[in-house]
Amino acid sequence: MLQIRFSIIYLMSSFILLFVGCGNEKKPIVQSSLHNMTKDLKSQDIKTELEEAKKHWLHKADLNLSKGLQKRVKNRDLFSTFGLGYGGPSAYRFARQDDSGSVWMSVVDLALDENIGSNPYYQNIKNFEPEQFNSLQKHLVNSKYLIYWLPQGWDESWFSIEQIQLAMDKGMTPIFMYWYFGDKLVEGMPNYKERFAYYKDSKKVGKFLKKLHGQKIVIMEPEFNKPPVMESKKTQRKFATTISRAISKIKYYGGRDTLFSLCMLDTGSRGVNSHYASCGYDNCALGDQKAWAQTEYIYKKLSRRLDFISFQQMIGQFSRNPLDSGTWDNPNPKAYTEDQLSTDLLAQRINNFTKFLHEKYDKPVMMPYIAMASATWNDNNNNNKIETEELNLSGWEYKVEQVYQDLYDMRDTLQSNGLFGYAPLSIFDNPSQDKGGYQYFLNNEYHLGIIKTGAKDEIDEALHGDLYQKGNVLDYIYGAN
Hints:
The N and C termini lie far apart (49 Å). The chain has helices at 2-11, 44-54, 75-78, 107-112, 130-140, 161-169, 192-210, 227-230, 233-254, 289-292, 296-301, 338-341, 346-361, 397-409, 411-416, 473-478, and strands at 83-87, 91-95, 102-106, 145-151, 173-179, 216-220, 258-264, 309-311, 313-315, 318-320, 333-335, 365-372, 376-377, 391-392, 419-424, 451-453, 467-469. Mean pLDDT is 90; it is low at 1-30 and 66-70. It has one domain (2-478): Glycosidases (TIM Barrel). The chain contains 16 helices and 17 strands. The radius of gyration is 21 Å and the shape is globular.
């Protein structure tokens, strides 16, 4: 019974456990979906393309931003109103019409460029459909939060300070997901050398933020509550101390107009037929208070450092089996039933989680990213291998739409229980997400966004310009045009 519960606990996040392959097969390296959020930005060739792309992005001169019209957000405004966000990488990679490279679309342009469909640079995108991008812009302009990722090895060249400042001056608040240790925390706590490098990188983050004028948010170490961190009071104390010192570094070098949070995994049981008393609800699909309370020591140690509490949600109908993940090249997949995942109750679970955290720590709460992979798999021939004809690439789109509709319908309740905002993990499906990598969500890695394009999974490296919304998700998140 405990073993079954354990598998459900760890399926529901982008975090994966470390399993050793058999014989001489390649040992899986701990990697999650988050590992690839900024992967496309790291090569020197890409940096050259990005510098060229920035010349064509929206500039201050393109906007009516006289000093009297600036709407920079103040501390007190953030938590008093509900807001939606979006983001992912600092720019999305699209294929060029002539296949001669990539076109990089700024995430700021997606919201602020009212003429995005007419931008000559973007018209080089393969199968570009300008009216679809104009429609997307009309949705995203309603966003309050702009989310960026800072993994280990991040580089300032990935970003446009001018553009982020434009978004801030138009009333948006940038959120930087500082995912430094990331998946390496699964392998153990950072040693002295690694912590020293972390503090040095925190100084770099602070100096970067100093260039931005106005309110900013840094969310420290998303998905921090991995087993080595939670192992004992000693490891939890050590982790809290490490985070506290990093926050001090960022504040010292970045100024005092930055708010901080620490984002936890939802590591609870989710089965609608599970009725553990420790879950604290009629069934465990509605929440798992015992699992949620395990981070209490860390949050209370950091109470003075944190301005709000945050948590994430990631879910998919199939993934690697968390109890027997297989090897790198030969994964062991597992499909889940609705009773095990309880997607129909996910919005209520999010509401319960929000209320639990808000009441426990007396702080506002945010869900900075949520992802529901939209493909499904049915092992028709029972060979425990994923075959193309067994996949339904839109099999869960109706569930994705329903969850966002539920969240929309519950928005007033969510806000009254302490939630001040949330955001999807990614706007677009990525046809090459972690291709050749560990791929915890397997073929579902390509379906973590809320919009799909004509790009083909594992064939195309970049997005295409023909956009297909998953139901009415955009309306439920950002409002109807």
